[in-house]
Amino acid sequence: MLETKRLVFRELDQLDFADLCEILQDDAVMTAYEGAFTDEEVQRWLAKQLDNYERWGFGLWAVIKKDTGEFVGQVGLTMQRVEAEEVLEIGYLLKRKFWQQGFATEAAFGCKQYALETLGAKTVTCTIRDKNIASQKVAERIGMTRHKRYVKYYRGVEMPHYVYY
């Protein structure tokens, strides 16, 4: 599996439910999703990642600090629909206590390299909520630029997004 200087990646499993709740039920982390998830939504999120591993061989992975073994967040690759196109996307959601320490950039860059070098992807994207400035900066730090805007509907809400390549 994937490793970076400070992080190791592994597949999520049911034992990660509490850590996922810490991320997905934090209103500050989930601002771009219009609010925190319920336990049921967290379980569906986890099930989707497990399905992605089976279907695609990748998904959002647990990201663990090498030096402490702490669960930092979930970062990885997913297939997303952007208008009429299926795109390979880098996604990242970290526990708030790990924000602004370079972990999102480090992990996202590792995923970008993995997608291009190991999977042989021709392109990889980030689709980012228009108001999520921190995530936009991560995409820019890993060498991506904003290409277009589109509207995604999620949880019954119209959510403008930018596509970075």
UniProtKB/TrEMBL annotation:
Keywords associated with the record: Transferase
Record-linked InterPro entries: Acyl_CoA_acyltransferase, GNAT_dom, N-acetyltransferase
Protein name per its UniProtKB record: N-acetyltransferase GCN5
Record domain N-acetyltransferase: where: 7-164
Organism from which the protein derives: Listeria grandensis FSL F6-0971
Domain of life: Bacteria
A GO term, aspect molecular function: acyltransferase activity, transferring groups other than amino-acyl groups
Keyword Transferase: yes
Gene3D superfamilies, A to Z: 3.40.630.30
Claim: Transferase is one of the keywords in the record: yes
